[in-house]
Specification:
Structural class: alpha/beta
Family: Belongs to the DSD1 family.
Strand content: 25-35%
Shape: elongated
Oligomer: single chain
CATH architecture of the largest domain: Alpha-Beta Barrel
Distance between the termini: 43 Å
Pfam families: Ala_racemase_N, D-ser_dehydrat
Number of helices: 10
Protein name: Alanine racemase domain protein
Number of domains: 2
CATH topology of the largest domain: TIM Barrel
InterPro entries: Ala_racemase_N, D-amino_acid_metab_enzyme, D-ser_dehydrat-like_dom, D-ser_dehydrat-like_sf, PLP-binding_barrel
CATH superfamily of the largest domain: Alanine racemase
Largest sheet: 9 strands, mixed
Keywords: Lyase
Helix content: 25-40%
CATH class of the largest domain: Alpha Beta
Radius of gyration: 22 Å
């Protein structure tokens, strides 16, 4: 059993385990799929740990996406020099972005813009401090979460960004996270179809005499599709740790589970029922009860329900299970699961000798 830890008796539960050797294998696989480290803009929202950012930097990856100001601060502190905050920054977050830029003057830190009002707010705020805002135009090509639609107004916005006094436009951000078909060929067809209008927009930018933009496309589901598009940059995130949800769905992406939850049986309240100390504070609970965790060392079971600190499971082999037994589980969705923990136990050679802080789970580090 690759996942069993020799000194598991020393760990409290529930605990987040990170298998360092598997993390490195996943980093290497990401690079292999992309064809080079240059094409990767890896999202740190999955891991939120400076040590994993450093592992990617040591492997040659130099560009990163972040979802929050705190993630960007963590990533810059770890040594990264190229960051994109892939979120719409409004209100006080624009001031925080400026402070982040001032704290890390030698780090490229860009944000996303998808409307004229946001462009004006950035331009004004950055002009007041004598800086230029580095931005990407966020493009909505079907997910309908953020971004400007690919309509007859989008070129006008791109031109405005190109000619604003305190804004520098670097490219397009095209996130098609809604395309998650299990069959790779079907998913690729959907990604390609959704990219047709992006190509037309790129042609319009060229016809307007503007510089050719950098294009960052997709997340983890579309990674293997966009990797085939030679001039496109890819931004997977979940691949670094992997999870049950994508592991079952994206069969062509052969990544290894590198993050598990360790939990213990704390009660056997009724024949056929066991209770573990893994409630919905210990594993992401946004999905239905049957899509939260998959146990690697338990068979013929069903997770019946969770409360804050308890998980109730029906089991077939009730007599063989003892109170205190350790279970190892793969989260269905690893990104928000990691965000539930302050620290992770690091597994090397079946031993726990290190603890890493989940530094960027904070909404604010120093800025």
């Amino acid at each position: 059993m690759w996942y069993k830890i020799d000194n598991e008796q020393e760990l409290d539960s529930p605990s987040l385990l990170i298998y360092k050797e598997r993390v490195q294998k996943n980093i290497d696989k990401m690079i292999a799929i992309a064809g080079s480290t240059e094409r990767l803009v890896t999202h740190v929202k999955t891991n939120k740990m400076p040590e994993i950012v450093k592992m990617m930097l040591n492997s040659g990856i130099s560009k990163f996406k972040c979802a929050t100001i705190a993630e960007a601060e963590m990533t810059a502190t770890a040594g990264a020099k190229y960051l994109i905050i892939s979120h719409q920054l409004v209100g006080p977050k624009i001031e925080r972005l400026i402070k982040l830029r001032q704290k890390f003057p030698n780090v490229f830190i860009a944000s996303l813009i998808d409307c004229s009002d946001s462009a004006d707010a950035h331009n004004t705020a950055f002009a007041q401090v004598g800086l230029v805002a580095d931005v990407f135009l966020d493009v909505n090509n079907g997910m309908n979460r953020s971004g400007h639609e690919l309509d007859d107004k989008i070129l006008e916005l791109y031109q405005k960004l190109s000619h604003s006094s305190n804004i520098k436009i670097h490219g397009l951000h095209v996130y098609d996270g809604h395309l998650r078909a299990s069959d790779f060929n079907e998913r690729k067809r959907e990604c390609d179809a959704g990219f047709v209008d992006v190509k037309h927009f790129l042609e319009a930018i060229d016809a307007a005499g503007l510089p050719k933009p950098m294009v960052i496309a997709g997340g983890t589901p579309a990674f293997t599709s966009h990797a085939l598009r030679e001039e496109t940059y890819c931004s997977p995130g979940t691949c670094v740790l992997w999870d049950w949800g994508y592991g079952d769905k994206l069969s062509e992406q052969n990544f290894d589970y590198a993050a598990l939850i360790l939990t213990r049986v704390i009660s056997k309240p009724k024949r056929g029922i066991i209770t573990i100390d893994m409630g919905h504070k210990a594993v992401a609970a946004e999905n239905p009860i049957d899509k939260r965790i998959k146990f690697l060392n338990l068979e013929n079971y069903e997770l019946l329900g969770q409360s804050e600190e308890h998980g109730v499971i029906s089991v077939a082999d009730w007599d063989s299970i003892k109170v205190g037994d350790v279970l190892y589980g793969v989260p269905f969705h690893v990104c928000p699961t990691v965000n539930l923990y302050d620290e992770a136990y690091i597994v090397e050679n079946k031993q726990i000798n290190l603890i890493w802080n989940i530094e960027a789970r904070k909404r604010k580090i120093s800025i």
